[in-house]
């Protein structure tokens, strides 16, 4: 799905989290929002997912105005920073949650839910953990379960907030490839937030560098590396 | 190498008696025993002996006499009234407590600190003062109370007043139990439920409530214990009408003042038993669901 951000601004009280920013994300791209903390990247992601309301501006999905669309209607698969798995539910129930939450008319029968959850567990390569609770999983497993749960609702896009932030270096490298694979299999427009420039450059098709609520530069990783447009980008990449 | 140079002189030094291995967080045995004994003695003196003496006094003339005193119509009325008041006040306070904790922990708004202080108010205000407030507000001489009495709904010296006073006193228990837990849990799981398409209502029943159910149960049990035992505020608003507005604690006091020792202590023993049932229930649930408690991050 093609995502267009049109002059989106967000203020919290008197603080400007986002100056009006505009951005067009092509359908099927894997996009990184890259920047230090406080750069507004998470706010922008949450606005896309419908978890925050922009102070002004519009969001367009496939050319249609989605600004007023409630979070439930956005069908955005959202992976939270610490995954926010439902701690009192098994992995199976976590992944099935979005399907069970559907109105009766469109809710799949139980057998179909089981089939879909099993398929998703295969996709994340953890076929045997359906009966476990989140507290019994490793960090990497939790991240993949959160991904499967987000994919279960057949989302129109995938939004991930620091998906690798809580993991150690080795697992991080493995899961990068995992996210790339899932993106390539599903073809979903995917946006992830990160403060790690190496991660952004290695994984994303498009990188959006942000600072202080503004977009500093957007482009292919190689182009940004070769031609940083602002002093901030040059310094941030050198760090 | 460094080890060698250090250990060599030690090895040749004459063997001296080593102090018994004591971990750095461990106190000598005599101290541990003394502290434990002091605590146990205090507990016995302050808690166990008085509680036991209530039962001893109640059964002084035999169990039959004690039971007979409880089946007196006025005593029976007090027991029913206490159970009724708890049955109304506790569910309502559970509801308000959840609502207050929700408002305090899941949203940002002006005046949050104020609400937190207000919730604590019943803890700091004397119950007698709380009772007086209700009398002033709803008494026959007040505008509101006069109108209510005129319309056949007296509050003061009647059951509604007792319920109001009890709710005022027990309001903080549920909210106080929930606020720290809900603050710690944050709202990410709720947001996740919403992004997965759940309505606010469904999110509350399937995510929020299961996450707070243990704290909620603790709060409700504490609230219930206090609701059945409340004396001061109820004494002021009830008018102590025997057989009508006297709850168990009030009845105990009246019986005691009339030197009806066995009757007073029988009722006291029953009230204590109700509290002990609450405690046992809590311990049983803790024991039965120990795994889930650990999983939900509560001890």
Automatic annotation (TrEMBL), chain A:
Tell me the domain of life: Bacteria
InterPro entries attached here? AAA+_ATPase, ABC_SmlMolc_Importer, ABC_transporter-like_ATP-bd, ABC_transporter-like_CS, P-loop_NTPase, Sulph_transpt1
Pfam families under this entry? ABC_tran
Q: Where is the ABC transporter domain?
A: 3-237
Q: Which UniProt keywords apply?
A: ATP-binding, Nucleotide-binding, Sulfate transport, Translocase, Transport
Tell me one GO molecular function of this protein. Answer: ATP binding
Protein name as catalogued? Sulfate/molybdate ABC transporter ATP-binding protein
Q: Which organism is it from?
A: Rubellimicrobium aerolatum
């Amino acid at each position: 799905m093609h995502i267009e951000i049109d002059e989106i601004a967000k203020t919290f009280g008197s603080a400007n989290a986002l100056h009006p920013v505009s951005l067009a994300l092509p359908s099927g791209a894997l996009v990184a929002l890259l920047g230090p903390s406080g750069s507004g990247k998470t706010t922008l992601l949450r606005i896309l997912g419908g978890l925050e309301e922009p102070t002004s501006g519009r969001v367009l999905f496939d050319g249609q105005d989605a600004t007023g669309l409630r979070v439930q209607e956005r069908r955005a698969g959202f992976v939270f920073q610490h995954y926010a798995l439902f701690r009192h539910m098994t992995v199976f129930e976590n992944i099935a949650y979005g399907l069970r939450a559907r109105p009766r008319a469109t809710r799949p029968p139980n057998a179909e839910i089981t089939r879909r959850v099993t398929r998703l567990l295969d996709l994340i390569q953890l076929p045997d953990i359906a009966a476990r609770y989140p507290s019994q999983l490793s960090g990497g497993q939790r991240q993949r379960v959160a991904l499967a749960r987000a994919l279960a609702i057949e989302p129109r896009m995938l939004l991930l907030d620091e998906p690798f932030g809580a993991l150690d270096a080795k697992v991080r490298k493995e899961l990068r490839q995992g996210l790339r694979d899932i993106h390539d299999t599903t073809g979903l427009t995917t946006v992830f937030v990160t403060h790690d420039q190496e991660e952004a450059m290695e994984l994303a098709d498009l990188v959006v560098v942000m600072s202080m609520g503004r977009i500093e530069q957007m482009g292919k990783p190689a182009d940004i590396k070769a031609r940083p447009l602002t002093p901030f980008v040059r310094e941030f990449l050198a760090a | 190498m460094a080890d060698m140079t250090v250990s060599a002189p030690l090895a040749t030094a004459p063997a001296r008696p080593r102090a018994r291995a004591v971990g750095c967080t461990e106190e000598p045995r005599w101290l541990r025993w003394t502290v434990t004994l002091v605590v146990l003695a205090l507990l016995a003196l302050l808690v166990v002996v008085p509680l036991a003496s209530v039962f001893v006094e109640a059964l002084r003339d035999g169990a039959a006499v004690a039971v007979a005193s409880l089946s007196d119509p006025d005593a029976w009325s007090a027991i029913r009234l206490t159970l009724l008041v708890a049955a109304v006040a506790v569910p309502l306070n559970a509801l308000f407590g959840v609502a207050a904790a929700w408002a305090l922990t899941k949203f940002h708004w002006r005046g949050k600190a104020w609400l937190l202080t207000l919730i604590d108010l019943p803890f700091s205000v004397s119950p007698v003062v709380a009772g007086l407030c209700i009398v002033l507000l709803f008494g026959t001489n007040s505008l509101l109370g006069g109108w209510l009495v005129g319309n056949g709904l007296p509050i003061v010296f009647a059951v509604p007043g007792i319920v109001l006073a009890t709710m005022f006193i027990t309001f903080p228990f549920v909210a106080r139990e929930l606020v720290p837990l809900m603050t710690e849990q944050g709202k990410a799981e709720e947001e996740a439920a919403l992004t997965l398409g759940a309505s606010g209502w469904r999110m509350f029943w399937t995510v929020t409530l299961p996450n707070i159910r243990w704290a909620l149960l603790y709060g409700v049990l504490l609230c219930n214990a206090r609701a059945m035992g409340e004396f001061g505020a109820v004494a002021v608003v009830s008018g102590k009408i025997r057989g009508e507005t006297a709850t168990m604690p009030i009845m105990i006091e009246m019986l005691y003042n009339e030197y009806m020792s066995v009757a007073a202590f029988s009722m006291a023993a029953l009230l204590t038993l109700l509290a002990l049932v609450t405690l046992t229930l809590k311990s049983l649930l803790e024991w039965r669901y120990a795994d889930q408690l650990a999983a939900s991050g509560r001890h």
